[in-house]
Amino acid sequence: MCMMLHTESEFSLQRIGDSRMRENNLREELTRRLSVAQENGWKYGISTAKLIVKNADAGCDNPAEAAMLYAIRSIYSGPVLTQFEMNGSTGRYFIDFALPEKRVAIEFDGMSKLGSTNEDLYRAKQRWIRREQNLRDCGWNVIRYTWEQLKTLPRLQIDLAQRLDFARGHTNDLEPAMGQGVYRLSTSVFHLTRLSMVFHILRARSLHSPNLHTLSPNVTGYSA
After folding, report:
1. What pairs with residue 105 in β-bridges?
2. In whole angstroms, what is the distance from residue 47 CA to residue 220 CA?
3. Nearest to 95, CA basis, from 141, 162, 27
4. On the chain, which terminus has fewer CB atoms closer than 10 Å, C or N?
């Protein structure tokens, strides 16, 4: 869903204001169409789909960042802002995930950010060092995670909770489906397939079609 919003909003850091406006319009339209589908007989997965739409973010550049966003929101209830703009001594840049109330910057170090040569890697590391020092000078704490760490999501969640000092009984205020519910859903191929049927009607072409009300709840062969 994050990737769908990212693509359909034509998300661009150079035009981030316009991108966020398009993202919000898409989210409202997706939510409206889910409600219409529910009124016309689609029942299974609608509530979870609405929750996913609500919490998806077009600022995620790739599926790994989308997974990282889920990991953060599954344990932290405060605002989480993607592509948070900073203007510091090193120039203008964007934090992958900012927790403004905690003044914590979480960066995902994906391979695509490193470049393809040793020289690119060296330059990337130098940029990271300067950028991280600038953030610390501005009063931010910086936490970095890699693709390897993301592969073991439960361990990453525990580590992040400890580093945010949320091990002392902090609870999040997201609906249960965003935490354990979505995680359980993702482990069930059958359930994920059925939920994908809901999103099938919400893909790009559906957004431009006003005829959602003509869809039958059994159009895919699955009954509600």
Report:
1. 98, 142
2. 19
3. 141
4. C
